[in-house]
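Sharing a chain and its predicted structure for anyone who wants a worked example. Both blocks are below, sequence first, tokens second.
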Amino acid sequence: MSKSERVGLYPGTFDPVTNGHVDIIRRAARIVDRLIVGVAINAGKGPLFSLDERAEMVSDEIANMGDGFADRIEVRPFDSLLVHFAADQGANCIIRGLRAVSDFEYEFQMVGMNTRLNPDIETVFLMASENQQFIASRLVKEIAALGGDITSFVSAEVAERINERFGKLDLAASSD
């Protein structure tokens, strides 16, 4: 990595990766030379998909973007403190997507903490595109669990995996 190379880290749980996440990934790739999408283990959120499944889904979405950025984007799982992971990856900025004021309040606190831990890593906020602002992974899972149509929130491939997962969960629950 050269001193002037801009390396961004876009961290998240991505459970599941949504069209909103892909939008931020695409836009972040435009402003950095290399983008690392860090898939966090975050067991406290009770993920629907394993860390490896989530990393695979993000990798598949990036491969399907088709805009020439995929060769500058890497997907890496992590289970450490964010600023430590960022430093280990050579990232000089952390990219966060914002949907609403409530996101900003949480992220503002995180920036303060991360800056105290490593003042050399900047945080850059990207506002969600207007047609993606309402999408949240948690809501996508709730809609899918209740049999709703999630195809406008995630890619067809991700929707299939979510619906398959809930189908398997429903079958397991009904066989007890």
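Comments welcome. Confidence is low (pLDDT under 50) at residues 170-176.
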